[in-house]
Please model this.
Amino acid sequence: MNIQKNKLQTFATLVFLGFFIWWISFQHVVIKLGLSVQWYGSTYAFLALMGAIVGFVAARKWGGFKTILGKALMFFSFGLLAQAAGQLIGDYYVVWAHQSTIPYPSWDDVAYFGSILFYIAAAFMLSLAAGIKFSLKHISYKLIAILIPVILVSVSYAVILHNHQYNFHKPLTVFLDAGYPIGQALYISIAVVAYLLSRKLMGGVMKKGILLVIIALCVQYLSDFTFLYQSNRGTYVPGKYDDLLYLIAYFAMTTAMIKFLSIYKRLRPSKPVAPSKDAQTEAL
Model:
């Protein structure tokens, strides 16, 4: 188990480092949109694709759609696939359509916004597995579940949409401007509550996996935050720090999927997960 886990994590880390070194190598020519920049933008979504594949394997081990944790991992994997699809669609505008900036909104937003919906569903499933139904009876968890999205949405609107004039003749743009920060605030707040509750989940062994998920979701939020900020001001440049943040987010989520796979192998090495009448097993 450890050997297989280490191989997966080592490979993912090497892929990440390879793309990171590549990113550094072209920063001096990024404004010129050289060939290296274009190929970089077209290929680093491979890390998201790898995370999705590992996530689907981990989800199957945990019971797939028959268990709550299996559903959470499936939805995280679908979210990664949607991110990879959005990346490839966005790169079409730069590489093949020869546009200096990606239009907003465009077809890649269908995939990106879809990933937010998948991440919300996944975080909610994690919170169910951790016992959120019962723990929300405590005032502290209620405050966390309310304050985190309020703070994140407030910051998003104060920075991204400062002096922003809504064009109600473009309802899709208005919807995305509002939907991106609200959706991201929701999945981060739900994931944080799940993490706080995870000490009760199977002796706390899930905490590291859920913490990695939270890190990935927070970096994803920063990535989209940066992209929306730049897009609204017409300053987005492919290949700059926004793409680096997306790369880090993909790596963190891939690492989280590897962690959940290794947890399964450590706890249940010899038999597949099956639905059970036992309360803890049903929660998973």
Q: What stands out?
A: The chain is about 75% helix and 0% strand. The chain has a mean pLDDT of 80. The radius of gyration is 19 Å.
